[in-house]
Amino acid sequence: MEHVKQTLSLKKAWRYFLITYEVCWNLFLLFLIFVLCAVCFAIGLGAGYFASLVKDMPLPSYQEMKKDIYDYEETTHIYFANNVYLGSFRTDLEREEVKLENISPYVIQAIIATEDEYFYEHHGVVPKAIIRALFQEITNSATQTGGSTLTQQLVKNQILTNEVSFERKAKEILLALRLEKFFSKKEILEAYLNVVPFGRNSSGRNIAGIQAAAQGVFGVNAKDLNLAQAAFLAGLPQSPFVYTPFTSDGTVKKDLSPALQRMNTVLKRMKQAGYISEKQYHEALQYDIAKHFAPPKPSPFEKYPWLTIEIEKRATKALAEVLAEKDGYQQQQLRQTPSLYKRYLAIAEKQLRQNGYNIYTTIDKNIYDRMQKVVANYQYYGNDIIQYVKDKQTGKTVAKREPVEVGAILIENKTGRIISFVGGRNYERQQLNHATQAYRSNGSTMKPLLVYAPAMEMGVIQPGSIIPDEAVSIKVNGKYYTPKNADGKTHGFVSVRRALQYSYNIPAVRTYVKIMNKHPVTYLEKMGITSVAKEEEKHVALAIGGTTKGVTVEENVNAYATFANYGTFIDAYLIEKITAKDGRVIYEHKRKPVPVFSPQTSYLMIDMMRDVIRHGTASSVPAYLKFHADWAGKTGTGQDNKDSWFVAINPNVTFGVWMGYDIPAPLQLKYKGLNYSKRTQLLWAQLINAAYDVKPQLVAPKTRFNMPGGIVRRAYCTASESALSNVCQKTGSIYDLYNAKFAPKH
């Protein structure tokens, strides 16, 4: 009986078990179905949401993606003459392109181990990483591991923005998948390593790309980075300006522990991934990173401010004209439409700052450097003066100390190449480039350019022509102008040669009056002096440098080179060529000779200017020089001694110097025993001596100016004017050179 009861009890328990099992199983099945439905719903909802986020985004083609991925800023480089490296074009970001094979394997291993351990396995995204990152975002987790692969980071940097939104993330995922379809892992990795930011370099400038980082942080190329250096750099992209070891002024941060801890993390992950051994790991940890940081390198602007600014300005202008010409605009159209010119200048400047061009200039580094030293050490400028000027910010009148400033330029005659220049004495005090941008009265250096050479070309005068150096008042527009000589005297009847030799003003003005109605200013225009308006030619004071605006040192010196080229003007230039990174020539200077004077006029002018140096107002120059050459030149003084000039030519080069105050004021008549004119000539001589020390064959040619045909020698005391009879009786016949076309007939 007892046995029957046990059997019934077991059957009853089994039945309850089966009922419970069926209930639990059904509940499990219902839960599973619910979960599956929820998952499917979530997937469907997520897919729908994803689709809604990217539905309006056009899918880029291979060519479009290639353009975007490789469209990164690269640093443009500047060179002195003869391919001597000057430095990089000023930009907010320094970057150098480098091929993957020229990058240390340690860098590649460190980046993959740290940023994307499944790089070689995934197809652009890692789903579980995205889900993890999404969960952390939704739950606002304190730990944010991120879910971006290298491919996604490349898309974010090059195609999208850094905006934090689900829409941007969705587009990033889609584009990453598409990018992996078109590009190999090698191409993606190479592009990533060329665009990723690395913080600052040892000079405090922003850097991107592994090559700029290797050079800027450790002073080596990317291919030469050791394990510790590679790990250090690989840790920077996560937070470049937190981990970068340098401040914005280039000094090393006091606390490097965040960057070193990050480096240790990178090394640990490399070891875990099997890229390095335990031994390598510990050796890298012992490496003294801070000891191997690169020293700060001054930018070209810091070391060569005037030169860098001048190069940037001229390169931008040259490239703007190239770009405009490609679009069908001529230079004249460009300059006549300021808004159009401004637009092309902006485009050109952007390209120069981003496209990794190479700019080659005409400047000889050694000559340029030596000239700056001469200017810095020169002892005869004269005293500073106090000028009272209105403060632009406060409007109050304040006292300002003004030193004597200087501008100088050396030009090769036959080519127009600017070999060197002096922009001033101290860029920090005054940024104006006194060689290329400062407009000043050129004083008596105007006489050969505007008066004597044009008058000889017209046949009005010749070197032996006699001009009265007597007081004269000239009526112009109802007013009388009475020119005075610098010495306050008159000298009777003088030849043109003598008038130039001693820089008499009255004969120059008298000669100018004779040719005023023949538009002599057109000669200045042909020689590149555009700052003198045609309306000014009716002002007789223009003959002795009385300009409204003035001329620059470059314009003045460049115009004098016309005589050295026997009457042909060759415009001076500084940018030799601009090339793309693949060597393709973007711009190259082309000479455009302009005929101005005949060879006969030019030689006669040269021969007269030889006398200026031999026995005239520049007679001190030969004693200051350490070499001999066939020099011909002209001194010049602005009104009230506010400007002092000396310009001279020889068969190879033309060199000119200006001295004066920025706010025009009289120069000291005497300083340390030298008058202002001799102080200018001494500086001129010391500067050209410095150039001679570097390139004697350029500065001191052994050849002389050759006399062209069509020049004859004639006596000029056979002239018939009765006023000259007494002079001729006392001195006898005096001979001079003449253009045969205009020589005396008796």
TrEMBL record:
Record field: transmembrane: 21-51
Keywords, in A-Z order: Carboxypeptidase, Cell membrane, Cell shape, Cell wall biogenesis/degradation, Glycosyltransferase, Hydrolase, Membrane, Multifunctional enzyme, Peptidoglycan synthesis, Protease, Transferase, Transmembrane, Transmembrane helix
One term of GO molecular function: serine-type D-Ala-D-Ala carboxypeptidase activity
InterPro entries: Beta-lactam/transpept-like, Glyco_trans_51, Glycosyltr_51/Transpeptidase, Lysozyme-like_dom_sf, PBP_transglycosylase, PCN-bd_Tpept
Record domain Penicillin-binding protein transpeptidase: where: 407-654
Domain Glycosyl transferase family: start-end pairs: 86-271
Reaction(s) catalysed (UniProt annotation): Preferential cleavage: (Ac)2-L-Lys-D-Ala-|-D-Ala. Also transpeptidation of peptidyl-alanyl moieties that are N-acyl substituents of D-alanine; [GlcNAc-(1->4)-Mur2Ac(oyl-L-Ala-gamma-D-Glu-L-Lys-D-Ala-D-Ala)](n)-di-trans,octa-cis-undecaprenyl diphosphate + beta-D-GlcNAc-(1->4)-Mur2Ac(oyl-L-Ala-gamma-D-Glu-L-Lys-D-Ala-D-Ala)-di-trans,octa-cis-undecaprenyl diphosphate = [GlcNAc-(1->4)-Mur2Ac(oyl-L-Ala-gamma-D-Glu-L-Lys-D-Ala-D-Ala)](n+1)-di-trans,octa-cis-undecaprenyl diphosphate + di-trans,octa-cis-undecaprenyl diphosphate + H(+)
One GO term describing the cellular component: outer membrane-bounded periplasmic space
Pfam families: Transgly, Transpeptidase
Signal peptide, first to last residue: none
UniProt record, GO biological process: cell wall organization; peptidoglycan biosynthetic process; proteolysis; regulation of cell shape
Family to which this protein belongs: In the C-terminal section; belongs to the transpeptidase family.
PANTHER family hit by this protein: BINDING PROTEIN TRANSPEPTIDASE, PUTATIVE-RELATED, PENICILLIN-BINDING PROTEIN 2A
Protein name from the UniProt record: Penicillin-binding protein
Origin species: Parageobacillus thermantarcticus
Lineage of source species: Bacteria, Bacillati, Bacillota, Bacilli, Bacillales
